[in-house]
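Troubleshooting log. The previous run stalled partway through. Resubmitting the same two chains, unchanged.
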Amino acid sequence: MKLPITEATANAAPPPAPLARAASQVVQRDASPTVQKDASMDRQKAMLAGYFSELAHARETGRKVVYTFVPGNLTELIRAAGALGVYPEVNALQSAMRQRSDGFVREAERLGHNEDVCSYVKCDVGMLASGNIGPTGEKLPPPDLLLLSYTGCFTFLKWFELLQKEYGCEIAMLHVPYQADGTVTEDMRRYVAKQLATEVIPKLEKVTGRKVDLDELAELLRRSGRAEDDLVWVLDSAKSRPSPIDAYFGGVYYVGPIFTAFRGTEDCEGYYHDLRGEVAARLARREGPVMPNGVLAEERFRIVVEGPPNWTHFRDFWRIFYDEGAVVVASSYTKVGGLYDQGFRHGQDRDPLLSLADYCLGCYTNHSLTARVELLSSYVRDFGADGFVINSLKSCNSFSVGQLVMMREVEKRTGVPGGFIETDLVDPRYYSQANIKNRIESYLQMIAQRKASA
Amino acid sequence: MSSNVTEADEIVRRCEALYADLSLSAVKSWQASHPGRPAIGLLPIYVPRELVHASGALPVSILGGGDQIDIVKGDACFQSYICHLPRSTVELGLQGRLEALDGFVFPSTCDVIRNLSGIWQLLFPGKYVRYLDLPQAMDPSTGGEFYRRDLEALGAELGRLPGGNAPTTESLATSVRLYEENRRALATLRQLRAEAPWLVPLDESYLVVRAGAVLDVEEHTELVRAYAAAATRRRRKAEDRIRVVIAGAFCEQPPLGLLRTIERSGCYVVDDDLFLGARWIQPTEAEDRGDPLTSLALAYLNRSVVASTRYQPDGLRGEDLVRQVREKRADGVIFAAPSFCDPALLDQPPLQKALGEASIPFITFKYAENTGQFQAIREQAGTFSDSIKLWGEG
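Second attempt completed without errors. Output:
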């Protein structure tokens, strides 16, 4: 499954010599030396660089390392146990943004992994086989625990089975029931919370040797909740015209800290406080979002996007929208790590384990197709969108299966036409710039004609 | 030709007619003889049919349209990189061929089957659609209790369908017993094929097992027993073929032609995971006098087959495949997985590694349920057979 961005860190350090591609092989994209960034991006970059450095020295400092997935991640719990989290999807997408996933995917296929399966898995397996050098160029420590938060994606299960065979370490399974009929029952909550108490926490305590203090956990969750308030305010700002943010390409930066290792930290709370101030200032100046090529001068189209982005050509992909004056005002991908805009907050339930259960159960891909259709339709209406685009990924059945039916259903409910493109997460062989550009441009032309005749 | 051979052939002919009948005539016949009672479609791989049966309904396993249906509308619902079973299943639904069914249960097999439940909700509003979250937490006090309560809820829902009855302790105990007998009959047939595959060709045994998708359990048990007895009486001699296990075909089913091709290429298939849901729970001789709903839940935790869709750390699936090969005295493994099947394909590297470490040869190919060209597979399987016969240790 998918993840937030990290291009900020992708530029933090050059790849180490053994893994660096020959200069002639490197595909140069967006060579512009003056990429524009918000101050919050620099802050995030520094946070991530610091974190990866901490990971690189985990063995020396005696910190235990827990690999886990973004949807349904238990970051506050990992922190309460004194461990450091590693998020394999983040590593995969960062590798893709640094043009290294291609080699990792091919390495995994050379080892017998099939071309049909998830490229995140293959990227991770290939990275492991190539020395497990992380995105910042430092070696990632092996896991002491694989925390399989099985939320919304069956491939997670296979992925960690593969890693467990490689590492031979402890593994904890957290089964999160699917919201098939759009509701979370008390039974589902208690089932997840009980697994946390009887399976996850004991294994965390076993590998870290530290007792989890539930009061401390509750405090971390409350701090997460405050950061989530600010994130929701930022995402909600896109209802303004012009939108001061891009809620997809820019949005993946915004969700980075809260979807990963920083939730529950003061750094995270500070980041979102600053981000909110930054966006509020732009809003006051009636400025559009900051995009890689500058502040968007004119907002011509307001678009909702369903599905994760392509990471291997992220800038090129974004540029297609930028060049057409298209701003993404809401996206589903920025909800894979939590549907905060629908009201959930960590720490809302005073019982920290039930709060974590609510979080796991509520992530976007744990929702039924009907609920996803309702959410996308509400985004189109509430954010005044002119259209919605589905970026369907070959790698990701969790997102992709049913998207064609969803598209017709959202069109029916909103009266807004949808656009459909196909790419992949981190396998560059499935991204065709000319084809995607042609389709997006044609789609936006159609939207323009529709607006003109309205 | 003896009368016994004729009897087996007759049974197989009937089973092939059931296999080819995508309009579910057998289900309609059952409904005609059981007026007002519902029939419930069950998607792969495993749903406890006992519970459906105990509610007075006919459990019907849906295994796609195979190679017998042209996909007209189904392709409009799925991208090209998604396996074939859901598109043919949607096609069957949109063509009205599943109208005999009063509801559908989608188990937590994979992302595709899970999301197919959502597609069904959107495409067929008004139909009873139920997602069944099979537990991945195998502790009886967590996963077991959650699953038991969910089964209880499912039973109550089935009871509220027109013509349905909420399962009682008595009706469920009866159903558990009937399916236990069915599993024993299937196990006997499976064992017979392992011992004397020349008496029980793969396509025949598959058709006989698959007939259980649409027949009432008691009728199917009798049919399996009758076929096994008739096949045993056949006078056939073993041919010089290698013995293989097929792995990876547990959900989307290969076309019959493909199964026949493998055995015509110098192989006896002595075990497989085709239509795995039919034998998901391993039979037991132990008599269980406890609460049948609890038994059903615990059976999933404790007696499930080793499968790619169940959480199984520690490389146990590889060990299980090696053990299966040894027990069935197989010479090798044929990995036959549907294209784009994540569970089967993600499992292949570790399984192949386990086979390699045990010096068990294997070949690999992919198929779709509507694969129509078998020449390449024939050559591949034939070469595999020849290589083992020429250079194998046996």
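Takeaways: Chain B has three domains: 1-26+168-238, 36-165, 241-394. Chain B has 14 helices and eight strands.
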